[in-house]
Amino acid sequence: PRLLHYSTGWSLLSGIPTFNLGMGTMTYTGYSGSFSPFAISENNITLPVGWLSFTAKSMDRSVKLEWATANEQNNNYFEVERSSDGIAFTGIARVAAGLQSTNRTNEYSYTDQQPLDGRTYYRLKQVDLDGKSSYSKVISINVVAAKGYNVISTTGSNQLKVLVPQGIKEKTYLQIYNSNGQVMLKQQLQVGQNTVNTGALVTSGIYFVNINQGNKVVYKNRFLR
């Protein structure tokens, strides 16, 4: 038997263990890493995937997932799974393995074009050619549904075009913040297309846009002035 430790993925620990099958014990010396979690495996185990990273990034109305592996053995595909509570997951897409077996770094990505509203959890199910599977760590991101809102900006222009979808009955406001989080402009919006004059923003740089419907932020974006 050999000892494995999990950090961002399972890895075999170096060194030679001593074990007593009759007593059901194993002793491992010379380990200086973190305490847990650990697992015991057969000596000739081959890890299907060495996980390097797995991240989620909000892209306005979508979520971009990116992950990288250090090595792959008999890898068939990855299944992207999503959850609203971090417990019950549902598969939403498959991403084919770049190479079924490789020792080089491989990078993958998938964009969830219709993410859930609110805190959303993702994980990856890695599936071997023989049907066996393993899982990545679980990551989460807070998703704010755009619900038909849109902000169009042109670099160098003194105007923003803001679209508010039909059927909105609550008071809707646009707020613009500078990089220090200060509110630089606030304007009430009407259903349909609105024009927002940004000429008062005299300092060049990146500004952040929030659209509030009642007390809830329903849209976030940024633009360059």
Explained architecture:
The protein is mainly β and 225 residues long. Helices cover 0% and strands 57% of the residues. It has strands at 2-6, 10-12, 18-20, 25-27, 38-41, 49-59, 62-72, 75-83, 90-96, 106-112, 118-128, 133-135, 139-143, 150-153, 159-164, 172-177, 183-189, 192-197, 206-213, 216-224. Strands 8, 9, 11, 12 and 13 form a 5-stranded antiparallel beta sheet that branches. The protein has a 4-stranded antiparallel beta sheet with strand order 17-16-19-20, with no helix packed on it. Strand 3 and strand 4 form a beta hairpin. The N and C termini lie far apart (62 Å). The mean pLDDT is 80.
Write the layout of secondary structure elements.
Layout (H helix, E strand, L loop, with lengths): L1 E5 L3 E3 L5 E3 L4 E3 L10 E4 L7 E11 L2 E11 L2 E9 L6 E7 L9 E7 L5 E11 L4 E3 L3 E5 L6 E4 L5 E6 L7 E6 L5 E7 L2 E6 L8 E8 L2 E9 L1
Antiparallel strand pairs: 1-2, 1-5, 3-4, 6-7, 7-10, 8-9, 8-11, 11-12, 11-13, 14-15, 15-18, 16-17, 16-19, 19-20
